[in-house]
Amino acid sequence: MGLPATYERTLLSDSEPHPAPGASSHILPFGLFELDPDGTVIRYSPASEKAPLVEARDIWGRNFFTDIAPVEQVVGFRLRFHSFMASGQAVERFATTFAHGQQNVKVQIMMAHITEKSEDGRRRLALVRIMPE
Questions:
Q1: I need a labelling partner for 92 at 20 to 30 A (CA). Which of 33, 52, 78, 108 fits?
Q2: Beta-bridge partners for 57
Q3: Residue 81 near residue 128 (C-beta atoms within 8 A)
Q4: Domains and CATH numbers, the chain
Q5: Are residues 50 and 2 in contact, defined by beta-carbon separation less than 8 angstroms?
């Protein structure tokens, strides 16, 4: 099921710094993110497979909070994310609202801890799903 294109548009203003390469500064991608404890995007799967407005390769390796969505509303989300990563909680869900042009868009956010095995041990990551209501 695809999302209407209007849901994936503008949550960033023209004046905000650091848009993802190849992405317009008017786009906040919805979908499933795998983030490291600092918020760097390890993997991204867009919510809409039909012509996603941001390609996964354009945001891999970038910090979600400073490069992908550097907007004022994300500050609370960033603090909540860092608290979640430091906690022992397995899953956290909450709703928040982002400005969307002249209206607000209510967004559901779900975070879950995952552990990835690597050659140098195990590293703790988070799956983060961001979807409009």
A1: 52
A2: none
A3: yes
A4: 5-132 (3.30.450.20)
A5: yes
Q: What is the signed CA dihedral for 33, 58, 25, 19, rounded to 10 degrees?
A: 90
Q: Which residue has the tokens 């992405």?
A: 23
The tokens of 90 are what?
A: 């397995």
Q: Amino acid identity, residue 27?
A: I
Q: What is the token pair recorded at 22?
A: 């190849």
Query: What is the C-alpha separation between 29 and 43, in angstroms, rounded?
Result: 13
Instruction: Identify the sign of the CA torsion 110, 121, 119, 58.
Output: positive
pLDDT tens-digit profile of 82-116?
999 999 889 999 998 876 556 778 889 999 999 87
Say what the pTM is: 0.72
How many Cβ atoms sit within 10 Å of the Cβ of residue 80?
Answer: 15
